[in-house]
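Write out this protein's structure.
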Amino acid sequence: MLDIKFIKEHPEIVKLNLKKRFKEDKISLIDKVIKNHDSWLKLKKDSEELRCKRNQLSEEINELKKKNESIKNLIREVQEIPDKIKSLEEKQSKIYEEMQSILTQLPNILDKNVPIGKDASENKEIKKIGKIIKPKFELLNHVDLVEKRNLADFEQGTLVAGKRFNFLIGDLALLDIAIQRYAIDFLTKKGFTFLVTPLMLNRKSIAGAVNLNDFEDVIYKVENEDLYLIATGEHSLVNYLQGRTLTKLPIKLCTLTPCFRKEIGGHGVDMKGLFRMHQFYKVEQVVCCLPKDSEKIHHEMEAITEEFFTSLGIPFKVIELCSGDLGDKFARQWDIEAWFPRQEAYREITSAGNCTDYQSRKLNIKYDINGEKNFVHLLNNTMVATSRAIVAILENYQNPDRTIIIPNVLVPYMNGKKKI
């Protein structure tokens, strides 16, 4: 969330930011949250003054007792103070909750380099990497390809769990694990620490990672428990640092987790199967750093993922999200879109975002280094969502006889198998 002090000192900047994000309907919230904060401060001051007065009256009562003078009126006044304080604190708490609710609705301040645009159609292409080779035969869609070869069972997944669930079988299951292991090794060699994290988080923690007002219909809630299934490993990684004051930065973390989402949207044969599921595996990277380093680290994280997909031999392009397509927590974000030759289209496969101090403020993650104290900057980047990477491999490495060549870097993780 944004700092209320920043909002009060720079209300016009915050309002302009909302205009750039095409969220003009929220502009009225700025004056409202400022008014709430002023009221909250006044109530807080009144409560403190009452406590001070109670202490002063207590001292006066003690002095009068020593002089054997009447304390009846003062006693009555002291006895009334706790109820007055309670009433003020109740009003203070109500205003504070309303203020926090408004703050969670206000998006992060855009980086100065973010292109202004209303939706995804105005995202900016940065570069393309890898040569696109048009196949000389008709590619089979990945659903038919893996089902005919008994490498996956989508019908049984639907039977036992519902739509968008599946069973991966044999070499395809091994390919999923091979991508996972290769991605973990890739990141740990880059200086990331690998963590095994909780797959469920309580409401406070999940709300620190995402805005539940926007994501509650995407995240699975555990019935009758204060627990949510994570939609990405980022949720657990940032909460590993929750409530900490750090004395050494940067901290580079990565994890492998299943991710659980109520995915909606997507149509056609290429949008079903492995591409859009309720459960999939993802290797995630998160970096916690000093504010002055976050722009540089953002570029570094993106470069790591570019290097990873280049090593897989999958053509891709990098785009920068425009202001209207950018999630609330991000100040800036780049996506990698892999080339899917059967679809003859680039489709999103990873995202690298800089949240600046937007998440760390909610999660209370600070640093104390060389006498400087403040909130850290948090960045996240999907290293690889294995299901989408598998589809990209099935399309880019498909042979006329429907066998699949294994990318060279994955062969050691496939026990030496070069083709499936």
